[in-house]
Amino acid sequence: MTELLLRARILTFHDEPLNGETSAETFTYLEDGALLIRDGKIVAMDEFATLRAGDGQNAEVIDHHPHLIMPGFIDCHIHYPQMQVVGSYAGALMEWLDKYTFVEEQKFSNQGHPEKIGSAFFDELIRHGTTTAAAYCSVHKASVHSFFTEAHRRNMRMIAGKVMMDRNAPPGLLDTPQSGYDDSKALIADWHGKGRQLYAITPRFAPTSSSEQLEMSGTLVREFPDLHVQTHLCENTAEIAFVAQLFPWSRDYTNVYEHYGLLGPKTLLGHCIHLSDAEVSTIANSGSIAVFCPTSNLFIGSGLFDLARILASNIRNAIATDIGGGTSYSMLRTLDEGYKILNIQGQRYHPLRSFYQATLGNARALALEGIIGSFVTGAEADCVVLNARATPAMRVRMETVETLVEELMLMQTMGDDRTIAEVYIAGVAAKSTLPN
């Protein structure tokens, strides 16, 4: 049995702080706090002196003062095969897919390539403080095996799946309705529930799946109702028009997924920018999750996510990097761009609300509350140690910071991977062991 007592300032959320200035009851902040970790799980969170004198008296103490410890960041939409297309020049989504992404993803049929990218991918997640992600693999089974093999080796809780796509892509990226179903079912048997791994049924998006493939995706959902589903929705106006051509019987884009039984409380819908009122109602009624991908939406020029409308419609929501349309692995950079997108629309994105979203909020979106995203007793001990003085510019700014909220805003605005002083995966230090 291994016991660890992490000492630092501690911040964890209990609920969503919709009104940040008056929401102290939604979070716990301890100036000299500690986490007692035993065999990879949170045993207790309390004042350091209390834990040291009690249950933690025999634990190894690691003191991270003056840093802040929070639950590890959670990324609800990311493409592991797209590491080498980040920052590729293109005017819009479909051009970007055809010119770069589909070219890059074909490399995952090459022996050794999935393993190379998998190792680099998880290094970057850890370097930036992300301990759980919902990831898209390529169409190739080998890409999924490589992803989960690496995640399992590092004991990271991950959600991922093989993309299914049987049309409107290069031949090297196409499966068939039957092979997509068979491959997915085999991968579910191999990986879902193995260690901390979870499988997501992953039809890429309506433009690259035929009616037959979406029907078989829905069959998988019925056969495995506890699995996550992930896809893309209403990211780009040209994409929406293309879907209307491909599915002329549909009321709208969202209705395509509704028709094939793909919506539900574990369905992650990436982007959700250009939604009609009918689509908003459909998503809300299904309990599906709208995933905000700010750096991607800005970089590809897709549009502005309307969080106020999403919240007013009682749609569950999450936030994500969307690498490689997104431009940073950092949830801090993602929160910063989200703040700007909302601010330009006259919407407030209080730092407490944004850090809640990157931790407990995203855990709730993934139906993993109590498992990750907070420091409740029994939760998996995934933690991030944040240093608000990580760069010279941040140190100068910190001289005038007086409150926790100001510190969070500083890290969100000026922070990046250097702000991440350490990362713990199930109670084991991970960032400090990475290669330089």
What is the percent of helical residues? Answer: 25-40%
Low-confidence stretches: none
User: What is the makeup of the main sheet?
Assistant: 9 strands, parallel
| Radius of gyration, whole Å | 21 Å
Distance between the termini: 31 Å
What overall geometry do the principal axes of the alpha carbons give? globular
Helix count, DSSP H or I runs of 4 or more residues:
15
Counting DSSP E segments of at least 2 residues, the number of strands comes to 16
Assign the structural class, choosing from mainly alpha, mainly beta, alpha/beta, alpha+beta, or little secondary structure.
Answer: alpha/beta
Mean pLDDT: 95
Sheet-strand content, in percent, reads: 15-25%
